Amino acid sequence: MTSRNVLFWDLDGTIADSGAGITASLNDVFANVGADAMTDTEIRRVIGPPLQTTMPELLLRRNLDVARSEEFIQEYRRLYIEHHLPHTPVIEGMRDVIETLSLHWHLALVTAKPQAQAEVAVRAIGMSHHMVTVVGPAADAPVHKSVLLRRALVDCERELGAAPTLEECWMIGDRNHDIEAGVQVGTKAAGVLWGFGDHEELTSAGAHAVVATPAELLSLLLPSH
Predict the structure, then answer these.
(1) CA-closest candidate to residue 148, choices 116, 109, 96
(2) Mean pLDDT by 10-residue block, N- to C-terminus, for the chain (225 residues)?
(3) φ, ψ (nearest 5 deg) of residue 200
(4) 163 in Cβ contact with 145 (< 8 Å)
(5) 155, containing H or E segment
(6) CA–CA gap between residue 217 and residue 195 (Å, rounded)
(7) How far apart are CA 186 and CA 203, in angstroms?
(8) Domains of the chain in sequence order
(9) How far, in Å, CA of 215 to CA of 225, rounded?
């Protein structure tokens, strides 16, 4: 392994099976004001992007005041952090994949989940020791995934003592903004189909590869394995 090869990972829907906890927390928020639970389509749309971009749409569909978006986001976070975040499960098969890849690559996490929550989640799934850095936005300041990826690259250069070679790195995730970040920054980009995006979403965003299972991802990144 060289110090220049880094795999940058999304968290929710890629490594962590956090969908149930996120969905339950949002539905509890809506139930508290007598609003409908989320549909399957809404669930797929809301997990991944910053809530600041998706909450107004959810409120509008329920005839709730969009101006209260931040209030709803804060209540969601309170419920999620208290009841679900510390118990975040790992997607089946991904623990072995991460442990195997960590022997051949450096790993880093780049997520739209707020930084403090991301750090708790990575500790909860027992993967902190595998990550060179964990990068997420401030809780009240959503930013494009490409900005977070560039921040992670700076962290990796500082921690590893050498700038990663972009064309030898991968950004791996389950949504279009993960793929777009890799394309914009100059890494390769791999889409995974066990999360919340579909094949069309990932390929349209410019994915260099799309895999259906953790085993396929391992074969992509370690062809001789």
Answers:
(1) 109
(2) 76 93 95 95 84 93 96 94 92 97 96 91 94 90 91 96 94 97 98 95 98 98 84
(3) -65, -45
(4) no
(5) helix 145-160
(6) 13
(7) 16
(8) 6-17+90-221 (3.40.50.1000), 19-86 (1.10.150.240)
(9) 10
